[in-house]
């Protein structure tokens, strides 16, 4: 990371380095759960595609014979207790958008959410007896829990500068953190910034990974693409016709870590987006913000948003303008069999 133009970089680097040193030296002992733990995270602030990747990984684990559970932090809400995620109009304001979205897609999987991941993890062990492997959503920096497999996502669609320390960039850790990764996933490869991808590939290949007496322990590296599905009407007045999405003008809105990636996906579908309203990441929509969107939409044929935002506007009025949602399909490439084999070895079970 380039520190020459960022006087705050040494401060960020020192604070993060001190925290990791404390755990590396076992000054604070991580909590060991009786079941294997997988973390999925990143080294930058903002969206790198964690939620759709976790959705993909859940299916993989089930296919391999596991019974997974998920813990997530309830970002942007005031609930101070860890709990089992249930669905309802107010669910996102209690459990957070990511946890609710995962629950909607996986109603039979135990998903817990709260302000402290380790407390949620202990609840899973206590209450969800069928769970034999636990996923930590956004867990790469959550070293309070001992992990058996760390998956690191690196967003290839952003500018290289995003991997610098704040305020110039969005870094949460330096590239030294790659040493902790069991697998590295290059995400959003369908929108790759060529300079960023080359930079990340070089960084990943140059890290001095941990050594055993016989071999270097290097993480597996895979690539992921996420494809937006066609917008589907979900709330408000029905569309005049399905063709209006392709032929008309839409108002897009979202509260995501990387909103430009969402907008680019809509444009890649050939949609005409006349306006784009961006809210803060994990924004909690209330009646006032929903009403402002309805008023903005007067000159447009429909509104379109992400699945993660949709779970927070479940109360969209029936008499309101047409609201559409796009889903994400995740496609992985690389040594998938090697990934599954390594995952099974680290989880310590034969399924």
Overview of the molecule:
Helices cover 31% and strands 21% of the residues. The chain has 351 residues and is of the alpha/beta class. It folds into two domains: 172 residues, 3-Layer(aba) Sandwich (Rossmann fold); 97 residues, 3-Layer(aba) Sandwich (Rossmann fold), CATH 3.40.50. A nine-stranded mixed β-sheet has the order 3-4-2-5-1-6-7-8-14, sandwiched between helices. A five-stranded mixed β-sheet has the order 9-13-12-10-11. Strand 7, helix 6 and strand 8 form a beta-alpha-beta unit. The longest helix has 16 residues. The radius of gyration is 21 Å and the shape is globular.
Q: Give the number of domains.
A: 2
Strand content: 15-25%
What structural class do helix, strand and pairing data support? alpha/beta
What level of helicity do the residues show? 25-40%
Number of strands: 14
CATH topology group of the largest domain: Rossmann fold
User: What's the number of helices?
Assistant: 11
Q: Order of strands in the sheet with the most strands?
A: 3-4-2-5-1-6-7-8-14
Coarse shape: globular
Helix-strand sequence? HEHEEHHEHEEEHEEHEHEHEHEEH
Radius of gyration: 21 Å
Features:
351 residues; alpha/beta; Rossmann fold; 2 domains; 9-stranded mixed β-sheet; 5-stranded mixed β-sheet; 14 strands; globular
Strand and helix map with partners:
Blueprint (H helix, E strand, L loop, with lengths): L8 H16 L12 E5 L8 H14 L4 E6 L9 E2 L6 H5 L1 H9 L5 E4 L2 H11 L5 E5 L11 E7 L27 E5 L6 H13 L13 E9 L3 E4 L8 H4 L1 E6 L4 H10 L3 E7 L8 H10 L5 E5 H4 L12 E4 L1 E6 L2 H12 L4
Parallel strand pairs: 1-5, 1-6, 2-4, 2-5, 6-7, 7-8, 10-11, 10-12, 12-13
Antiparallel strand pairs: 3-4, 8-14, 9-13
